[in-house]
Every structure is written in structure tokens, then in C-alpha cells.
Amino acid sequence: MSLDFGPAVALSCRECGARYDLGPSFACLECFGPLEAAYEFGTVTREEIAAGPANIWRYKKLLPVPGDVEQKRNMNPGWTKLVKAEGLGKSLGLKSLYVKDDSGNPTHSFKDRVVAIAVEAARNFGFHTLSCSSTGNLAGAVTAAAARAGLEACVFIPADLEQAKIAMARVFGGKLIGIDGTYDEVNRFCSELIGDPIGEKWGFVNVNLRPYYAEGSKTLAYEIAEQLGWRLPDQIVIPIASGSQLTKIDKGFKELIALGLVDDKPYKVYGAQATGCSPVSVAYKAGHEVVQPVKPDTIAKSLAIGNPADGPYVLDIARRTGGAVEDVSDPEIVSAIRLLAETEGIFAETAGGVTVGVLRKLVEAGKLDPELDTVVLNTGDGLKTLDAVSSVAAPSAVIKPSLDAFRKVI
Amino acid sequence: MSLDFGPAVALSCRECGARYDLGPSFACLECFGPLEAAYEFGTVTREEIAAGPANIWRYKKLLPVPGDVEQKRNMNPGWTKLVKAEGLGKSLGLKSLYVKDDSGNPTHSFKDRVVAIAVEAARNFGFHTLSCSSTGNLAGAVTAAAARAGLEACVFIPADLEQAKIAMARVFGGKLIGIDGTYDEVNRFCSELIGDPIGEKWGFVNVNLRPYYAEGSKTLAYEIAEQLGWRLPDQIVIPIASGSQLTKIDKGFKELIALGLVDDKPYKVYGAQATGCSPVSVAYKAGHEVVQPVKPDTIAKSLAIGNPADGPYVLDIARRTGGAVEDVSDPEIVSAIRLLAETEGIFAETAGGVTVGVLRKLVEAGKLDPELDTVVLNTGDGLKTLDAVSSVAAPSAVIKPSLDAFRKVI
């Protein structure tokens, strides 16, 4: 089997640094640490990136994908809008605020980014089926990408997910299996399945393809920097589910500095959780270095991972950069969704309510400098979590089509 | 009041050619024909367009907007994906098929394009409130754009719309008035309201701002041509609600030819309706030049306009270009939504089911050449019309998290 992962040349253990050949493996044989892609980057210029396509493949020389990736059948996500959020900024008292709005991706969440990379890994390894454990968004991203790529799909979700996420995970034609349990139980089940003959030739995007998949989140860092005019933000607020996205955005920023694509400068990374699933925030506030698993209970289902694999790394990054980890309650999430909608015309899913809510809380607590360039992520779409705004899911008034009737209601 | 509409210099009557100063007017005083923007275009090159932003403002020199439009608070829609649809093409027996997927717009329908232009017109005329009659998508686009632009919003919809569209029209904070009646009744009510003192200083995007608003649909033509490598498609399938979008795509193609941005060549325009609201298709098949209004009864609510204002122009364009107008039943719409999802990973709303269903019907009837470059439009998002796919809105199976349980269901 001839593999083509572009600039990625090996897998390396994030804990002990042991190196492995590129393959569908995810845990270090020495220390059980997580493996991630290791690169030998060639020269990359701002100009060639700018001349690339309006999707994540403009950064293909920084990703574990073949050089001809834009010719393949792929969803081609990314290059979503970085919205200059003057309305929200004014409301919160922030001078220079941007919303990175990933609801513009093909299946309307940032998951399209990571799945796009996993599809190329699945092709490289000759897998016929794409699979995942998912809190909802990932299931839709995987089944859509599999449909486009001509792969089979079989995805696993907690059975109690939002209706819209279930429909979106099913309409693309793959198998959708509801598991009677939490996301963490779904995840454990998938790890078992990999060892079973059924799971042979299956690419579980967030298990045995994870070292490739996770790299997709780096593209958020690249896009934010490029869209700011090749400059890192001073402060960034990122949601925490497994914590992977946050660690990869940090990795992306560091790569851009190392490659000379942006000036080296300090930036503060803030992690955002829902109070009903806030193991990382709890650990951060207690000064712990490890994360105590919890059983999630929050409307922010896309962030409801009670045992976040990358929790310790998130704690490390928040502390190292001078950021923080904070959490907000379900009512604060709903309030933040509405604030973002009313000030920016952006309808975020609950995860976006979490980041905007945490941003608000950090500003109010003086933990974030209102004078500095700040980016807040919206990673999903409000249409997928309509229950969160059910209080406004009806007309202001219903009338007969007459001016008299209208005058009575305004 | 100093107006700045960029290259647009007047309004002109589409029927009699009478010219008027730019203003919030929409009907010819001579013959009651519809007014549209008239331009004096300067030089426009492919290079300067390519150097523009990844949204409709890359074409600002062809639109009735100020030259500094990209500095304003606007949703900045457009530059959505033109997906090379090899999967769907293979399934239908088409050699070269593309899906223009406008679900990637900020509120996930093509309406963001037209509203973006209307916002600039409202600003020009000093209006404080943005309004519309809507079958759903437009209401969300207007309220979002008003939120971003700092305008008030008050929008009108038939009270029986899909839940997702109602939520999306309300979450951005404007007033949402449900009218107990059809879209055509909502529309007539809005025309009354314009003459009333309440409606003074209101910009009804699809009534008194219509000559500007409607021009936004031209950007679909520009983008398709540019994304094809500055080439017109041979055949294009476009949904018909009022018919405005179809006429403006034709206008856009003709402008590109006149400006020398693409080579002159024939192209065939096909209109698509739902059988439950198919007045234009009926007229086309009967050889009529006028359209008999109908009372809509279809799941394709975003196309449910029983008295389409631009119907006669659509008939003319379909006949002149050698295209056709066709319609599909509600079951055919659902089947087409699923086919598009399963072959391309694109989840279309019912309007996209209409265009893909009509495409299939035209191919099967031999009315469309399978060898030629064909573009089919998806103008909205499946998340807004979930009821259409309710038959698949559940997991394939729900199981306990065990391999034994899984073996039993696969």
C-alpha cells in the first residue's frame, strides 16, 4: 500500500515523543499517549495560500493530505466567515471582536473540517466504511462526507439527540445507530468495535483515524490568522468538548509562527464549557492538572463529553498562554445565543451560546482585556438545536390580513 | 438626500422602457409594468473580480450598491460552492453536472443575496425598518440582515410555516407577524401597508425595494460563470417561486456576455415548480403567454406562490432559450432530496428537491441533453424543511452499547 499524506511523515506520541510509521493507529505502544501527525514542512508562502481554493485545501501543504487533494470527491469545507462583530462587541464593551462562524460549513458545523482530513486518511488505508461516535454534528458530517466520497457509513450516537441532528445524520444514506447511553459509553463501544472483525476496514474518524482527523482543527487557526491579515489574535475563546479543537488551534498558531507566516506574539487561549458538563473548568479553577470525569447534563449536547481526552492539554495551554477556562449555565447559554443573533444576525447552536456566554462572563469578571483583538468561535448552527430557543419559536402575533388587525398588535 | 447606487443610474420599466430617478418605487406610472435597475457599467475585468472578497461584493461594479459596500455592516452572502456533482450525474446519466449550493449562505438560503442589496437600498433611502412578505426563508434573511445592519425588522409570513423557519425568523429579534392566509394574501397585505402611515420609512425588500433587491439574484449567474472558469453553462435548472430569480440569472448571463467577461454562446433555461403550485408549468405546457393563479398545496412552501409576478417573463425565457418548465409531485420532491443527499452529501430543502426532481424528469423525458454542461440550483437548506424527510428522521436502530447487540442489528 503506497501512502500519500503530503507533508506528514510519521506519527509521534504527544507524551513521550516515540515515532511510528503512518498508519491507522492512535495510541503509543510505549506509554499509551495519544499519537499525532508529525511533519516535514516545505516552503509555504502567504501568496501561494492566497492563490489556493476558498476552502481548507488552501493549507494542504500544512495538512496530512495528498498534494492533489482538491481533485478528490470531498466536501471541501472551510474558509468560513470571520465576522467583524461590532454589534456584539459594543454590547459587551469589547473594542475589537470577531466571530469565526463555522456554521457556514457544508453540514453547518466545524466537524466538516476534521472529517475532510479523515476521508483522505480512510482512502489512504483502503477503508470501505467511515464511522464515528458522535454527539450529533459529527454524525452528519461523516455520513455526508461518506456519501460524497463513495464510502459506506455507519455512525453511533446517544439515542436522545436533537431531532435535527438525527435527521441530518440519516438523510445521507448511512447507517445511524442510536446507543442507549451517554456519549462516553458510545465512545467506549466504538473502541471495542475496532478490535472486532466487524470493524476491520472501518475508519473511525475520531478513534483509529484520530491523528489525521484532529489536524483538521488547525485550519481554524490558519484561517483566523489569514483573515486578520496574517496576524494572530490577542485573545481567543474556544469551546471544549474533547478539548482537541483547542489544542489544535494552539498548534496551528505555533506552526504559523515557526513557518514565518505570522509574527511571533503572545496570545491568550480561553476554553468554554457548559456548567452541566464542565470537568475542565472545574479542574482549572481547582488548580488541578488532571480532569475528573462527570456525567453530562446540559442543553449543549455537542459539548457533552464527560471524560474529555484532551482535558489535561487544555489546562496546560490555558495556563501557559495566560488564558482561562470558564463555564456558563444553560440559561446563560440561551441568553448568549439570543444576544449573538440580535447583534450579529448569526444563529448559533448551543455550543456557540457557550462560547459567547463565556466571553461575556470573562469580560464582566475582568479576565479578558476589552481593548485587545478578540476572536470567539461559533462552531455550529442554531437550526440543529432549535429547542434552545423554543421560547421564541412562534410569531409575535397571528392576525387576519388587514390593516386594522395589524394596528391592534403593534 | 444623496444617493449612492454605484453603477445603477435609474429605474426603467421592463414593459415600456420609461425611465425614473432612483427611488423606492416599483411600478411604472405609465403602464404599471415592473421597474428594474438600469446601469451604466464601467470597465470590469476578470482579474479585479477575482481579487475581490469571497462574497457577492466581488461583483459590486455590476450591482446597485455603493462602491464602499464591503465596509458596511452587511451579511456579505454569496460565493457559495459550485459542487461538481459526479455522484448525482452518474445516477441520472448526466456527463457534466454541477450543483450550485446556496445553502452555504449565512441564513442558509439564496435570499441572503437579494436582502444584502435591499439593505443598502434601505440605507440609501433612510428607512429605519426592514420588512417583507415571506414564505419563510426571506423572513429569516431579512431579520438577520436587519440585526447586523442595526435596522428594525417587521416581517410577515403565512402562519402555517415550518417550525424551523419560524424560529429562524424570530431569533434575530425582529417582529414576526403570522398572517392567517396564503402567501399571496400576505403579499397583498404588505402592498396595502406601504400606502399606510405605519409603513412610511419602511423598506419592504420585495415590494418598494424590489428593483434593487431582485438584482441580487444576478450574482448566482456571475458566480456560476466564474466558478466554471468564466464560461456559461449549456443548461441550467432554476426553481420558480415569483419567477424573479430565473429572470435575473438570465439577465446576469446576458450582462456577462455584453461586458465581454464570457464568450457568447447559447444556454437553455429550465424552470422548476412543485405540481401542487405549478401555474407557470401549466401555462408553459398549454402554450399560454399568461399565467393563471392557483391556490398552492405542496410541501415546497418556499416556492408556494400561486400568483407569480414574473411568470410571463419566465415563459418567455424558457421558450426563447429552448429550455422548458416542468413540475414534480411531493413524493418526487422527497425522493429527489434523498437522492441528492445520498449521492452528493448535500441536504437540500424542498425547493432543492423540486429542481433535482425536475432535472431527473427532464433527463428521463429526453428534454435535456445528458452530454452538455448542466447546472442545477439548490436554493435552501434541508434543516428548514425537516418534515419532508420525517421517514428517515430516526436512527436505523437503537441498541445497548454492546457488540452482541450491534451484531443483531447489522
From TrEMBL, chains A, B:
Stretches assigned to the Tryptophan synthase beta chain-like PALP domain: 77-380
Modified residues (N6-(pyridoxal phosphate)lysine): K111
A Gene Ontology BP annotation from the UniProt entry: isoleucine biosynthetic process
Family (UniProt): Belongs to the threonine synthase family.
InterPro entries (UniProt xref): Ser/Thr_Dehydratase, Thr_synthase-like, TrpB-like_PALP, TrpB-like_PALP_sf
Record EC number: 4.2.3.1
The keyword Lyase is annotated on this UniProt entry: yes
Name by which UniProt lists this protein: Threonine synthase
Needed co-factor(s): pyridoxal 5'-phosphate
EC primary class: lyase
Keywords per UniProt: Lyase, Pyridoxal phosphate
Pfam families in UniProt: PALP
GO molecular function, one term: threonine deaminase activity
